[in-house]
Design a protein that fits this description.
Length: about 300
């Protein structure tokens, strides 16, 4: 069931939810939250409203705790749903002055689990696996530039500068624009894709309707199909290609601050994680005393 369907169902079945949802969206837009943030928050808040058949603004603390306990016990997508619900409710209660419930929401600690990344050979195998040029170019572009999946779906043809080998990413996460460099390999692939598939507005448009962007669900399905044609047995998602980009950039000698800007991170702490994954040149590691007394030897 799509995010829009769940939200619409809550609007139709829960008294007062539509008015609350519309006002919540307006307040989120005013506060500068991205479209994907709206969708994630509303999806989980809609599920909560449907569960109790009441607006989240009318739910008591013990009912909220019971639902959060139910969520965390689920096996599928539980942590992601839990986090988006807590973050969404935290914003909702703050914007609607429900301080008592806001105080009862649990804190969410940042995960210390390091992401899985692919080796260079595995990346070659993955890019080679798809049958069609569109998927080959899509996965190559994500790896080549470190795009988020939402940035792939929203990428317009007009924002792809093949002469300068640049992408213009507009108003992505944290409402930031940024330019990204592409390799000549990807530029050649994009030219072939444009010539063969003739997308109309978006670089990767819907398989059924030109001028409509490809969905995130479709991209995930295409990756799953491609992985099935390889010997890769790692637990890989579309976002893993972004993690692989960041890791391989560091291993190639990229500056951590340049990488931060390329990834569109707001805080350097998010980028520093990749220092724990990248296999950096051990020859350059040395004790400070050796450097301090190097001239005396």
């Amino acid at each position: 069931m799509s995010k829009i369907t769940i939200y619409s169902e809550a609007c139709n079945k829960v008294d007062g939810f539509r008015a609350m949802g519309e006002e919540f969206i307006r307040k989120l837009v005013i506060n500068g939250k991205s479209k994907s943030t709206h969708e994630n928050y509303l999806r989980q808040i809609s599920k909560l409203a449907l569960h109790y058949k009441r607006s989240p603004l009318e739910i008591e603390v013990d009912e909220l705790e019971e639902y959060l306990y139910y969520l965390i016990q689920k096996d599928t997508d539980a942590l992601s749903s839990y986090k988006h619900l807590v973050y969404g409710l935290r914003k909702l209660y703050h914007l609607f002055d429900k301080e008592a419930l806001l105080l009862e929401l649990p804190k969410i600690n940042r995960s210390k689990t390091l992401p899985v990344v692919l080796s260079q050979q595995e990346m070659k195998d993955l890019i080679k696996a798809p049958v069609h040029i569109r998927e080959k170019v899509m996965f190559a572009l994500i790896y080549d530039t470190g795009l988020r999946i939402s940035e792939v779906t929203n990428l317009l043809i007009k924002d792809v500068d093949l002469d300068r080998k640049q992408l213009h990413i507009r108003q992505s996460k944290n409402n930031k624009d940024r330019y990204l460099c592409m390799s000549s390999h990807v530029v050649r692939g994009i030219k072939k894709h444009l010539a063969i598939n003739s997308p109309r507005l978006y670089l990767f448009d819907s398989y059924k309707r030109k001028g409509i962007p490809i969905s995130k669900t479709r991209i995930r399905a295409l990756l799953k199909e491609a992985l099935a044609r390889t010997d890769i047995r790692k637990d890989i998602s579309v976002h893993s290609l972004r993690h692989t980009y960041a890791t391989h950039q560091l291993e190639a000698g990229q500056n951590i601050m340049v990488l931060k800007e390329s990834l569109g991170h707001e805080a350097i702490a998010s980028t520093l994680m990749y220092l724990h994954i990248a296999q950096l040149d051990t020859v350059r590691r040395f004790g400070c005393m050796d450097a301090l007394y190097a001239k005396d030897r």
